Amino acid sequence: MAAVGDPAAAALRATFEGEVLVPADGGYEEHRRVWNGSIDRHPAVIARCASVADVRAAVRFGRDHRLTIAVRAGGHSFPGLSTCDGGLLIDLRPMNEVRVDPAARVLDAQAGVLLREVDERTQEHGLAVPAGIVSHTGLAGLTLGGGIGWIMRKYGLTIDSLLSADPVTADGDVVRAGEDENAELFWGLRGGGGNFGVVTDFRFRLHPVGPQVMAGATFWSMDDAEEVLRAHRDWITDCADELMTIVVQRLAPALPVVPAELVGRPVIAVAACWAGDVDEGREVLQPMRDVGSPVLDLFAPKPFLAHQQMFDPSFRHGCSYYVRSCDVDVLTDEVIDVVAEHGRMITSPMSSIALWQLGGAVARVADDATAFTGRSSGFTFDINGNTPTADGFEDQRQWARDYWTALAPFHTGVYVNFLMEEGSSRVRQSYGDATYQRLRALKQAYDPSNVFRLNQNIPPD
Ligand SMILES: Cc1cc2nc3c(=O)[nH]c(=O)nc-3n(C[C@H](O)[C@H](O)[C@H](O)COP(=O)(O)OP(=O)(O)OC[C@H]3O[C@@H](n4cnc5c(N)ncnc54)[C@H](O)[C@@H]3O)c2cc1C
User: Fold this and answer.
1) Boundaries of each FAD-binding PCMH-type domain copy (predicted)?
2) What is the per-residue pLDDT across 161-193, written as a single tens digit (0 to 9) for each?
3) Within 10 Å of residue 456's Cβ, how many Cβ atoms?
4) Are residues 232 and 354 in the same domain?
5) pLDDT digit string, tens, across residues 254-270
6) 451 near 189, Cβ under 8 Å?
7) Residue 424: inside a domain, yes or no?
8) What is the pLDDT of residue 8?
9) Cα(146) to centroid of ligand 1, in Å?
């Protein structure tokens, strides 16, 4: 704790509605931790904000004491960018209010909410905001990077439903950004991450979904990977926007729905969600379920809420996580060969890949309408080298790197929310030159001293 001591923290605490924690305080250990257990950092001060006034006070405190500032919502940054050593952690998690106006189909969410909390409230009305596929992820970080998930091909990215966002800027001011208000900032917040301020509140448009959807996954032995991947490629060509698929490779997990004899065997799965009529979805899914000899078929009508949590057990808090990601345009036979070959090399019960299908409504928004880049990509890979503890983690990281490198001839870009700390050239690559330059100009206008730099950083112009 070089630059700030307990008396300074006590001064912040005096006017703070939420909690201010220093290492000696009870609760510090719990609240310094992030989702990725391989990240182990010790902020000097944790400001657990309960209000916009708290966020403003915390930003000013960080600036006055020249502290590195980390901002945390759901804490799911893969590289652990939402914590720091020796600086200030602005923890938004206590700000977790969700308000739904079902008649207007509008959602107001504070920045600390998790996806599950949003889904639970919106699904009471058969509504949803397009978001991610693991329900303990934070809405804020996911939204600020773009937001991909089960209903994006029907309703677009998370940012495509964003109506406004309210950041606290580096000066401690509160600004509203929307289509008609600070429009350039609104453009940048939709994909540019936490570079422009600490967003305290989001407003979204909601869409009708479920509450029952036809969804789940069919599994085959990894020996059948080529056949399954080719069939999947053909099946999704020109498919309806209601259909969204993710191909998964992993060792079959030890879950109650998985027969004991299958657990630990290498499998390839096609997971999907049909965001429309259940019977129609059943018909559309059938041809894929009929391919070859599945070893397990979990497709069924089920609550959208349950489907949104299907992957939760595979990404428990506190394990060691590493990801490499890339977009590819087409699943050529060459890509399929790489996928089949490297999928067969999985050895950790927690390592996996997700091959996301893009397109549909995502691709119908103009590239320069938001700061998200990659709308015309065909597919996104995230290759997860994970282990329950630090044991064997380096081997899994190497497996993920090797898989990613083998795909290098086919890379077209990368989703910024799936980057590790990979350096400024990768951040630039994820935005492309034109968007990156525009983001730099915006950064210069809102944060010229780069106060908010613990993120996929855009340096001021
Ligand atoms: C298990 C898992 C599943 C995932 N699934 C998906 C998915 O389905 N779809 C998808 O699109 N992405 C997914 N992601 C990626 C995810 O979108 C990013 O990791 C995202 O940053 C997480 O948001 P968070 O609020 O939980 O993270 P945090 O770690 O809290 O924050 C991530 C980054 O955003 C910044 N930030 C957070 N809140 C604010 C705020 N209010 N104002 C300004 N800056 C802020 C932080 O400073 C940090 O740089 C997943 C990640 C994980 C770990």
Assistant:
1) 39-209
2) 999 999 999 999 999 999 999 999 999 999 999
3) 25
4) yes
5) 999 999 999 999 999 99
6) no
7) no
8) 83
9) 10
